Amino acid sequence: MPICRFTDADGNSQFAIYDGSRICPIALLTKTAPTQAELLAGGATWLAELPTPSDSQWQPAPDRLLPPIDAPEKIICIGLNYRDHAIETGSEIPSEPIVFSKFNTALVGHGEEIRLPRVSEQVDYEAELVVVIGKTAKHVSTDEAMNYVYGYTCGHDVSARDWQKGRPGGQWLLAKSFDTFAPVGPCIATSQELPDASDVRVKLHLNDEVVQNSTTAQLIFNIPELISHLSKIMTLKPGDLIFTGTPPGVGAAKTPPVFLKPNDVCKVEIDGIGTLVNPCVAE
User: Fold this and answer.
1) Taking the complete model, does pTM exceed 0.85, yes or no?
2) Would you say which domain of life the source belongs to (predicted)?
3) Rounded to an integer, what is the distance from CA 198 to the centroid of its chain?
4) Span 86-110, average pLDDT
5) Pairwise CA distance, residues 20 & 17, whole Å
6) Cα dihedral sign, 50-54-56-61
């Protein structure tokens, strides 16, 4: 069952079963609210064994949801991982994954605003499939890698291009880590809900126009390869997020370039997960 995280009437965060327009707090099914650590440790099997919610246990989904993972230890991102995207940027096809990161202060959930910073005039969009790690992984082979995946969510790697390319040395970390530059959600589709993410469609709607549209079959480095590669360098922990790369169609590659502006609405749509919606506002 897909899960989300929301703020209850008392101002506390809770996990819930997610069904698009409605949610069921897991605490109603278990009598105690599970912690994030308990939820990840239980895995998709534990969720699948929960009782089916009754009609009275469902409630309307709020307009805003919290990021489905709270304070991940690592937000790892992969650059230029779609062949067509590398070509449209004029970059060489990478021979190994290009890795950078974002800070937790960039995280926002479904329905929350992307704040366009005062110090950037070239904020771009990037729809991405995000992997949620479920178990500690170190020196994992590609054959074993999928055993460490808890599930998947929609991600938006918002990027300030004038910082990424226009600053000394190319400031990828800073360009990608402005507050609100890592929307994720609305839910996590567990590995049981989405057992094969090797060919799922990833779209980004900018207002009413589809500007990115591809599938994860176009990844240069697939998910098992990414997990194996990263685990050789760092210990992956439960709750870590891996942004797997963005398809072609980014604003910076258009003629003329298209950058985000106040009142734009970004929708990241991924098959088997749902749609992550975030409006843009001026900081």
Assistant:
1) yes
2) Bacteria
3) 16
4) 92
5) 10
6) positive
